[in-house]
What we know:
The structure holds two protein chains of two kinds.
Chain A: H1 2-7, H2 12-36, H3 40-50, H4 72-84, H5 89-98, E1 111-114, E2 120-122, H6 127-135, E3 139-142, E4 148-150, E5 155-157, H7 160-177, H8 180-184, H9 220-228, H10 253-263, H11 266-273, H12 287-298, H13 309-318, H14 330-344, H15 360-365, E6 367-375, E7 381-388, E8 391-393, E9 424-425, H16 426-433, E10 437-438, E11 445-446, E12 453-454, E13 456-464, E14 468-473, E15 476-478, E16 483-485, E17 490-491, E18 495-497, H17 503-510, E19 526-537, E20 542-550, E21 554-559, E22 562-566, H18 568-573, E23 578-583
Parallel strand pairs in A: 8-14, 9-17
Antiparallel strand pairs in A: 1-2, 1-3, 3-4, 4-5, 6-7, 6-13, 10-13, 11-12, 14-23, 15-16, 18-19, 19-20, 19-23, 20-21, 21-22
Chain B: H1 3-17, H2 20-34, H3 37-52, H4 59-73, H5 76-92
Helix pairs in contact in B: 2-5, 3-4
Family (chain B): Belongs to the ENY2 family.
Main location (chain B): nucleus
GO molecular function (chain B): transcription coactivator activity
Amino acid sequence: NHGARWAGIVKLEWSVSRLTRERKLTNRESGSAANVKGKGNCQNSKENRDFSQIQILPAGCSHVNGYKVDNWKQNLRVIYQCFVWSGTAETRRRKAKSCICHTCGAHLNRLHSCLYCVFFGCFTKKHIHEHAKNKRHNLAIDLLYGGIYCFVCQDYIYDKDMEQIAKEEQRKSWKLQGTAFCFLSENLMPFQKCLFTAVTFVYFVPPGIGEKYTTWEPTKRELELLRHNPKRRKITTNCTIGLRGLINLGNTCFMNCIVQALTHTPLLRDFFLSDRHKCEMQSNSCLVCEMSQLFQEFYSGHRSPHIPFRLLHLVWTHARHLAGYEQQDAHEFLIAALDVLHRHYDNGKKANNPNHCNCIIDQIFTGGLQSDVTCQVCHGVSTTIDPFWDISLDLPGSSTPFWPLSPGGDGSTVNGESHLSGSTTLTDCLRRFTRPEHLGSSAKIKCGGCHSYQESTKQLTMKKLPIVACFHLKRFEHSAKLRRKITTYVSFPLELDMTPFMASSKESRMNGQYQQTVDVLNNDNKYSLFAVVNHQGTLESGHYTSFIRQHKDQWFKCDDAIITKASIKDVLDSEGYLLFYHKQFLEYE
Amino acid sequence: MSKESQMRAAINQKLIEMGERERLKELLRAKLVECGWKDQLKAHCKDVIREKGLEHVTVEDLVTEVTPKGRALVPDSVKKELLQRIRAFLAQHATL
């Protein structure tokens, strides 16, 4: 009894309503049996042909009407969600396990699912045909492509409502996994199709967040632009497009190094180059528009350095604490820039829902940090989750003690780093960041459990990982006693796995699962390095440069107006002040 | 089930579960468009339909008719790339 067997797999409501439908149908079927026998559609199409002069639209298959009862739309949606498009990890796992032919057990052979009951059968060996004939269930859905087949018409059918549902569900599922594809097509295939023109250029990219990759069809206006600008530029692995120096306008290297990192953030680049920003600001002082312009400049193919005076002016206008020709902190600039971009994105409309912003900055850079404060007396835990754009990490050599580590920090190798000659790794810093910290007797907190002021411990973990993780190594110490730069070498990897620092990992440790199951299959929390900002000099005066990644694995050093090729070793041996990693695989809602 | 078909089933499951199958499908689609395979096959389908008459062709007929030619027309480079991708995926998930 497959119905019972699969009932637990799919949503209960679905199975129930499907089964009741099946019962209703058997009652009704005696009347329409003639329709099932023989080729019902011959009659039908003849009728259609007679009216062909009047009817312009071809009539679809009439056998779907039997299916369109009760909440058939919802049922069809569930099938698309669970077994056809499978946008989430859970539905995919389910699909992987359950999608086999119920007759012969094969997983190939164009598997179809009956639309009337829970039955999967292969098309090639006609097991789904047998089922359709025996049960008189005349509609089935192709589990690979989502087409719907009518066994009476003996053909795939194109029903407007069903097509609509299929399209909507496909879009939703691509929204769930969409961006993964931009990163995974590492060969940058779509980029090779870029069309560049002298003045305006059309950029062909896999759309950033949440849309299916579709073939680009130029609009009338775009065709005209292409005709007027006949110059085309192709992206090849050794072309320099996307690389551009930035003139230093007077101690503005703090800005230049961040601009280099931002313009090489894959998702941000895709967003701006596919012309996604629709400005809603009245004045022409929108920083998002300026970024958009900046991306055009970077990817225009011009080789002379760009002069970012407009950007600097906008920064001075919108982040007054950075105005003037003094030296500034690159990290401070990054946060200010993200903040202004976030505010300008939809001109303050997000005020309606301050907790959930959907701007491109928040979609890419915002993560959630969980803070658990545990009362030492009653062991009650109070948990808060705060959004973050960057993670500031303490370094050994600062006046706050770096170690002792939390229990469990036994120096096991995480992220493939070994402790060569006792140097500190990024993982060490992250482990310290997420260790339980005793707040001490001077910082008693009122416990919500036992309603008294008690000593407590606090632990930070990652609740939600951002798509781009910015790590800020706290190299500038401003304590009461001293102000200095910490030059301790911290090694950082090209690929970083954030799993050990997740709130979920901590929970599983708490539940007694001490062996951290290093799930090699789990790629959800893996990151790749794509930009590094460095500071040379002292606390008082110095210079910022950055390394950026281009074409998957080529690295370049950006020193204001000068860009030079760099090796991976140059990057990994550098001191590191800001480290930018992006997720390798994306799956989110 | 033979050992080989068990292996096939296990690999297929993993590919679906990790979403890799969809990615491969998308990659293949793009590659086939890029190399002109899609246009060639489209033209062939049109020929078949013209020859038999629109009223007498179902998707099934078309599939049977064009499959051998379609298979033969896939460039070796595309097959190789897909194979490499699957290999790399399996190497990465070697616990199967």
